Amino acid sequence: MDFADKLDRAWSVSAGMLCVGLDPVIERMPADCARDPRPVLAFNRMIIDAVGDLVCAFKPQFAHHAAVGAEADLAESIAYARAKAPHAVIILDAKRGDIGTTAQMYAREAFERYDADAVTVNPYMGDDTVYPFLTRPDRGALILCRTSNPDARRVQGIEVDGEPLFVAIARRAETVWNAKRNCMLVVGATDMTDLSRVRAAAPNLALLNPGVGAQGGSAVDARTHGARADGRGLVVSASRSVIEAGGPDQIREAARQLREELRLGAPVARAPA
Amino acid sequence: MDFADKLDRAWSVSAGMLCVGLDPVIERMPADCARDPRPVLAFNRMIIDAVGDLVCAFKPQFAHHAAVGAEADLAESIAYARAKAPHAVIILDAKRGDIGTTAQMYAREAFERYDADAVTVNPYMGDDTVYPFLTRPDRGALILCRTSNPDARRVQGIEVDGEPLFVAIARRAETVWNAKRNCMLVVGATDMTDLSRVRAAAPNLALLNPGVGAQGGSAVDARTHGARADGRGLVVSASRSVIEAGGPDQIREAARQLREELRLGAPVARAPA
Fold first, then answer.
1. Which CATH architecture has domain A3-261?
2. Are A240 and A257 in contact (CB under 8 A)?
3. Interface ipTM > 0.90
């Protein structure tokens, strides 16, 4: 199935646009997971069981697995999510950025070794770093555009021909990189003016919006300023505010509330672009 | 030992400024390595044995290990290089770029799990993505500045206040990020005009120069246009042109020739900045 169709199905089946991050931190997970012989896998499985039907996507964070040598746990967590929530899109958040053979190796890692549907990619090296991740219509790339961190605008906000770099990136993704309908953009849910500018420059693309919860972003605001004209088009990602909410019941309740805010068909007060 | 002192010792002991990449590709390695039960480790050990005394640094490429699940081979290769060439600086080429806890996880992976001396870092997300890799004086970060690929200038060459972004990045590294003397820049050996501009903006920083050999760059040119006033300041990196030169004898000869071109104390015809 093409990536664009997988994503559309994921929105429909979950009835919403919520993504939950898998960012396991052994020091901060519930005691029964932390005591497990494989704590990272136990934690990820607990999250997947708790929220699988509520999310359109899971976003495993590569660093949280790599720092503790948990590559096998990462692979098994993705396989577990596929079995328990077969509609959910799997986004490997690894922020790859390289060229030539090396970029091909990263694509092989994401799409074959880990069987992710998509991977986040950093565009600082130009088109050479983007295309190796966009060759397969059934797998996608999420290009960093306007990230959620405080100093994001130092580079991303540089003016190019009268507009910020992140708007130029968004337009290039919409008009060039998305030929196979498998290119998304990463746009933080932390600045609604900038989110609106990206949506205006890329009316058809799906956007991943990190920054909801711990970083201060609001799912309702993201939806108001970022949704496509058809009411879809967002993958709004929460991590710590959901996965560190407590035990399975609290985690599910935190996700349920966010999913309600991101439910398909709910009325959207469209903001001016 | 502080990173800056390690690097200075590496130049002195190797009497040159050559770095060799560890980019194992099973399909392209000598048959006796490819047949080994651990081909990636066998290949890396063969390279380290062949050129350890000739190089100031080894640059293992993360993707070539991650794509084939060879994390253990990567860790053991680095430990082997430490034993066989204790003067050599180990640069993990992983092009990390993330923020907050995630960036801290990547620093932990590079400096603790793999025991690398330094890691390559992508600055697209701004200062937030750079600082987590610069907290330890004994470990360094190499910030992508002006990379060696054909489309590098699409983003890196954008004009900011009358100069290209990569020059602004170089100046910020020289004046702000290098407070602990552990910040380097990645500048391709493929464009001598741009290399000269980086050196003018960052007269004191050490530069990693990929692109020699397979990508068309020349070690002599890189030295002429990139060396510091004291004749040091470069880590000129060759990968395929050395590691795919044949068996150990051919590999050593390819490295020896490059090291001669990059020998400390050899006369440099200084180009105008």
1. Alpha-Beta Barrel (3.20)
2. no
3. yes
